[in-house]
Each structure stands twice: as structure tokens, then as C-alpha cells.
Amino acid sequence: MTTSIGKRRALLASVAAAALMLAPGARAADGKPLVKDCGPKGEYTIGFSQANFKEPYREHVNHELQRLVKNYPQFKLSIADGQASVNTQVSQVDNFLTQGVDILFISPFEAAPLTPVVTRVYKSGVPVIELDRKTTGNEYTSFVGGDNRQIAKEAGEYAAKLLPDGGEVAILEGLPSSSPAIERLEGFKQGIAVNPKIKVVAEQPVDWMQDKAVTVFSAMLQAHPDIKLVYTSNDLAAAGAYIAAKQAGKLDQVKIIGTDGLPGPAGGMRSVAEGQWAATFVYPTGAAEALDLAKRILIDCATEVPRSVTVPTTLIDKSNARDLYGKEQF
Q1: Residue in 189, 132, 178, 181 with CA at minimum distance from that of residue 155
Q2: pTM for this entry
């Protein structure tokens, strides 16, 4: 689908500008542009291979890219649904290469299996921006996303304060073969370790899915009826944990912490605002930053760009949830 964009928020613009002042990572030889065909008079196609369209976070990323790309009339954006399938995503990326896209954005469903095709595109001379999720190799132009490990560490530290007297905690992981799931698990454990009275009694992947989270957390509560808090790797899993706790009659006992901080009536922001969850941590889309990189490479003919652009998180809890949710316009 081809789209273009509306107004860009000052906050996103300032964050993007600050993030892009990092040390350069992709650099052309002899001060030449990173791509041969570039310049302010050209028209360029961005191919984005999205991991899937099922997760609310993925839909939010797509929406932000479609909204913000309207700021760049020289860009055409085509978004493909990876359908949570490595084979589908590999085929899509190969199709983008055959179609001659000028730059590839990709959120790999799984890291290792998608590394070869990303490497192939990068070595062909097409810049590759990895958005939110990484492959395992080094053959890409830049990565844009939040610091998953740091965000989860902050969530762990927050959980440690919520339970000053300690208690039993559970973790619902994402897809274990994806980089965010691994980093969020490790980060949360690191953060919660500041309170030695807390014990992680159960952890299990739910693959980012709400229905699986309901099943898994229901079983956890049966095996460990004294669980006081559950940390989930995304808001969809947090919604599933809420359903499981409600079915078990333990909403007053179990505190829920999500990750994503999505806006809208079905997002985590509203769940915190209404008191269903204790908190969620915003995982930024990186859409503004990725498009800014594309502009630098294709329109400004940049000779170098940052290897990694980290977009900061925001804690959403009872102190700010109602205000933030009321201000969001999507």
C-alpha cells in the first residue's frame, strides 16, 4: 500500500534529532553517499516487511509510518504482512528486492532465520533499516527501536518498589526466538533483583498472544496461588493475564505490568488509566526516526548514519495514565 503524511509532533521530531546525533555506524568509503541513486529531486520507494499484522503494537507501527510518511512526498511506502511466518517474510523481502525498492525496513519475526535474506539485500546495495527487532548478523545499515533490556530493567525496578515486602512473581515472555523477548526477560530479572525478598516462581513464553497468556497464567495461578505480580513482555499478554486473574478471583491480589503502552480504547494506556493494571512501559514505534534515516540516506545523500538509534520509553502508571490517555488523538 502506498501512503504519504500529516503533521509531525514536535516531541517526536526533537527525539529523532537527538537520537540521530549518535556515533555513525554505516559509512560509505571516500565520503561518497551511502547509495548511488539519491538526491532531493528523486522519488523513492520504501518496502516494509512487518512481522505480522495481528499484534496491536504492529498495527500501531504501521499506522504511525502511514501517518508520518505524508511528511515526505517523495516517498512511497509499501507495507507487507509477514503473517508471523519466516517463509512468508523471506518471500516478501525477496519480492521487494526484485521490485527494486530504494530502502528496506524490516521487523523480523524471528532473528536467525531472517538474517540470510537481510544480508542478501544489504549486500546488493539496498540500505536496510531494522525496526524494533534485530537479525543476528551485522549486515544492515541501522537499527531503530527502544532499548528492550533497559525498558524491562526499569519495569523490574518498578515491580520491586510495588512489592517492598517481597512475594512471588511470574513472567509471561514473548516469542523466545525474537530479540525483544530475550532482552525483556533478561532486563526484568536484572531490575527486580534489587529486592531480594522477591522470588520469580514461574516464567513461560506466550508468544505475544493474549489467548495463550490467559491459558498460561491461569495454570501459573493454580500452581502458585500466592503470586502477587505478573510482568508481561507486551500489552496483549497483559490483557490475557488480567482475564486469567479475574477468572481466578485474584484481581485484588495480582498486580499487572505490561509493555508497549499502546494508545486507543484497546491499549495498555487505557487499562492503566482504568486501574486494571499497575503500569505499562511505552515501547516506541521508531517510525519518525526510521523515516528520518530514510530521508538522510535517499534525499540528503548522507555519507554516514548511526548504526543504532535508541528511542526512549515512558512509564505509564496511576500518576499519569488518565492524563496521557485523555490527550492521545489517534
Answers
A1: 189
A2: 0.78
